[in-house]
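Revision sheet: structure tokens.
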Amino acid sequence: MAYTTSSKISNFLLINIDSSFDSQITEWISVVKEYIDDYCGREFEQESATYKLYDGDGSRELLIDDLLTLTKIEILNEDGEVEYTIDGSHDYYLYPANKTPKTRIILEPLNADIGHFPKGRQNVKITGTFGFASTVPEDISFAATKLVAAIIQEGNYDIGSEIKSEKLGEYTVTYQEVSEMAERLGINDILDRHKKIVV
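Predicted:
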């Protein structure tokens, strides 16, 4: 899922963008999404239900990627086979407690069959739905829209008329240019509210 659309960009710029230019707009939306994800240290779209592997460190606590729903926790042996399954909500606590996404799991040693995440490489399998939210936050969508609009405006085109693909077809943008635009336009101030803090 993209963080913005050609329609939102057109509305922001108060112009009509010719449909023959859709592939170029899609490319810029992708570059902007990559910048936003890298800057914030997270992805804002909900992934399909899946699993991710983490390293156990012998403690009760595990830092995880943004998680919306948890199905089960599995401890794997050296061959990648399941040794323990933790699937009862009384066996663990998810944090932060009062909001999503969840970013930490703490085992409850009094209830769980295993009270810690054993040391190992990729030996903890977390199954669930990952992502920041079920829908992209409005301010992230606005930031993406504003950045793609800035890319179009950087080309010094007459934005009061229809933009045709032949006018913009040769205009490309680098990740570094997107970064500079975001800083200059104050977009990073919006993104800072969603930046993942690594402890």
